[in-house]
Design brief:
The protein contains eleven helices and no strands. By secondary structure, it is mainly α.
Length: about 325
């Protein structure tokens, strides 16, 4: 009889894996049920707040339902974000299947994401299997990557703007150089005309001087008047040329200044462009992801060193073998 009882009892003994899975399943169901109740509490907190006179909300929370202000705010946020479409607790349908399977803590942490991105994030990252700490890290990394991408996009636009400005200044410098060349050519021609005008003025004044000194020359009066007119005209033409050349030289100075300014601005914009381009390369999403894993690798290295030191105190041979394995791993990285 006892033997039969023992056989029955042995058959009824369940595997520890089955019990573990049932516990985890029940805990998951309890968490989901808790979130459903929190949604309904949040709904009613909204209703209560609308019914209470102004200024009595905090007192009512503390004395009647024993909620802190932050807890009440979180419950109402959960309702707003996850349960606003539900009509009643019984037979309620969550806004989405994947979000409906979350615990309260995870649902609260997911509020850090835009509402239209949460479900995709939950599915892509298998949030149900994550711990709260892992979820928080994943959200932080996602936000950092998104911020880096947005920053990179903004820097890309800024880089293009700087490049356009640099090219604009370079074009302005070329135009100023062309203008300067043209002005110098014109000034050269004016200078040649001026030399001719000076020679004509000198000749006319010498002719006038001879007429004044020799009044007996036939038709001296007529010749003198003509000579005076030619001398005056030659001097006027010379003065006009000198003024024109002076103005041309001023324009040359302005063109030189304009060219130097354009070249300086182009060089400065080019420098800013190169610096920003270098900075953007460091903000590349792949580089940023590398940095994240590099920090994690540093933490792993510190942990491995700590473990090796502890193992070395107990078994130096094993510690030596593990150290060689780490060195080989390092060689793999160097080979990459």
């Amino acid at each position: 009889m006892n033997k039969e009882v023992n056989i029955i009892e042995a058959e009824n003994v369940r595997d520890i894996g089955i019990v573990t899975n049932e516990i985890n399943s029940l805990m998951s169901q309890a968490q989901c049920l808790l979130l459903t109740y929190i949604v309904e509490i949040g709904r009613r907190l909204h209703e209560a707040k609308s019914l209470l006179p102004h200024g009595e909300w905090g007192t009512w929370l503390k004395e009647k339902v024993h909620f802190s202000q932050s807890t009440a705010d979180n419950y109402m946020k959960i309702f707003d974000e996850y349960g606003a479409e539900q009509l009643t607790l019984f037979g309620a349908v969550p806004n989405s299947q994947s979000l409906g399977n979350l615990s309260y803590t995870k649902a609260l942490k997911l509020l850090a994401l835009p509402s239209d991105e949460r479900e995709e994030f939950v599915q892509e990252n298998n949030v149900e299997k994550m711990s709260s700490r892992e979820l928080e890290q994943a959200i932080r990394e996602r936000n950092e990557a998104r911020a880096a991408a947005e920053k990179a996009e903004a820097e890309k636009a800024e880089i293009q703007e700087l490049l356009d400005e640099a090219q604009g200044y370079q074009e302005a410098a070329r135009e100023a150089e062309e203008e300067l060349r043209s002005l110098k050519d014109s000034t050269g021609k004016l200078q040649a005309d001026l030399e001719k005008a000076k020679a004509a003025e000198k000749k006319a004044k010498e002719q006038l001087k001879r007429l004044k000194e020799n009044p007996e020359i036939p038709d001296s009066v007529t010749e003198r008047i003509k000579a005076e007119a030619e001398a005056e005209s030659a001097e006027k033409h010379k003065n006009e040329l000198e003024k024109t050349i002076e103005q041309a030289n001023q324009k040359i100075d302005e063109a030189i200044s304009k060219q130097k300014q354009a070249e300086s601005s182009a060089a400065e914009k080019q420098k800013q462009y190169e610096e920003l381009l270098k900075k953007q390369k460091m903000n590349d999403p792949d580089v940023m992801e590398f940095k994240v894993y590099f920090r994690q690798a540093q933490e792993v290295q510190e942990k491995l060193t700590e473990l090796l030191n502890r193992i070395r105190t107990k078994d130096n041979v094993t510690a030596k073998g593990l150290t060689e394995a780490i060195h080989k791993l390092g060689e793999v990285y160097q080979g990459a």
